């Protein structure tokens, strides 16, 4: 589960930070837990520390802060998912309870076609809900993790004394041009401009990358807020169309049944 993976990586980074003052060998840290792109960053950082003997500890704090933000989003997103399914399940239960009570009251079951239609609508809603939510999240958040990963890599390796071309390649700056998310157009342009200045003139990256990281997180959190609101609308739409529709179909079937008895 994402939450558990995030906690494991956070604890692993904390152990690395604490080991600095204890002269604990890096080989004793164990395998790097994976959580989104932060696991890749931690793996790269550990390799760098083993090769060059050190790694900026303040950057580990920044990664842990980012991991906490991502875990908060995962918790909220999981709440939307499970809350939606619970709501749909309750609505389905109420509908089938009414169907059972109605059949018992009029001493005749509803037509099989009506029952099949009710079940089909409800199952369609259950199966379509999460793919719709995932598609919505992909469209809203597309490319944001890649931009953050690039910026964190530039920040961590930019002052490590490595050749600029090696740093830019590790940060995958060239891949940012493929991102289509219009929310990130200005930010990506600034990252590319900073990378060019770094490559051509050796401009320091630490302060500029920190500012861009803060801006990237602001855009991501703003997108998450909008995404949660849109997700509520999707949940309401699924509830009305599929589960409300199933209940409406039940009422139509009931009316037809009563008319046929008369």
Overview of this structure, please?
The chain has eight helices and no strands. The protein has 262 residues and is mainly α. Helix 4 runs antiparallel to helix 8 (206-261) and helix 5 (144-157) runs antiparallel to helix 6 (164-171). The mean pLDDT is 86.
Which word captures the global form? elongated
Please, what is the average pLDDT? 86
In terms of per-residue confidence, which ranges show pLDDT below 50 for 5 or more consecutive residues?
none
**What is the quaternary state of this protein?**
single chain
User: How do the helices and strands follow one another from N- to C-terminus?
Assistant: HHHHHHHH
Distance between the termini: 57 Å
Radius of gyration: 26 Å
Main pleated-sheet profile: none
Features:
262 residues, mainly alpha, 80% helix
Ordered list of secondary-structure elements with their pairings:
Elements: H1 2-19, H2 36-52, H3 57-106, H4 112-141, H5 144-157, H6 164-171, H7 185-201, H8 206-261
Helix pairs in contact: 1-2, 1-3, 2-5, 3-4, 3-8, 4-8, 5-6, 5-8, 7-8
Q: Could you give a short description of this structure?
A:
This protein has 8 helices and no strands. The protein has helices at residues 2-19, 36-52, 57-106, 112-141, 144-157, 164-171, 185-201, 206-261.
């Amino acid at each position: 589960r994402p939450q558990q993976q995030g906690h494991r990586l956070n604890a692993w980074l904390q152990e690395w930070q604490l080991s600095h003052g204890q002269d604990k060998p890096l080989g004793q840290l164990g395998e790097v837990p994976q959580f989104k792109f932060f696991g890749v960053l931690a793996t790269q950082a550990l390799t760098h520390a083993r090769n060059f003997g050190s790694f900026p500890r303040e950057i580990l704090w920044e990664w842990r802060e980012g991991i906490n933000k991502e875990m908060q989003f995962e918790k909220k997103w999981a709440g939307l998912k499970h809350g939606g399914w619970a709501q749909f399940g309750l609505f389905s239960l109420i509908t089938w309870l009414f169907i059972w009570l109605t059949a018992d009251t009029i001493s005749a079951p509803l037509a099989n076609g009506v029952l099949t239609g009710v079940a089909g609508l409800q199952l369609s809603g259950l199966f379509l809900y999460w793919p719709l939510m995932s598609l919505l999240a992909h469209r809203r958040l597309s490319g944001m993790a890649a931009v953050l990963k690039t910026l964190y890599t530039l920040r961590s390796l930019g002052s490590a004394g490595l050749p600029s071309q090696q740093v830019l390649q590790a940060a995958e700056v060239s891949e940012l041009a493929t991102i289509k998310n219009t929310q990130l157009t200005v930010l990506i342009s600034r990252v590319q401009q900073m990378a060019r200045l770094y490559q051509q003139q050796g401009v320091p990256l630490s302060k500029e990358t920190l500012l861009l990281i803060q801006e990237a997180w602001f855009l991501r959190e703003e997108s998450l807020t909008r995404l949660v609101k849109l997700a509520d609308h999707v949940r309401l739409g699924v509830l009305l169309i599929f589960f409300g529709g199933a209940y409406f179909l039940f009422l139509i079937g009931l009316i037809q049944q009563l008319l046929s008895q008369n």
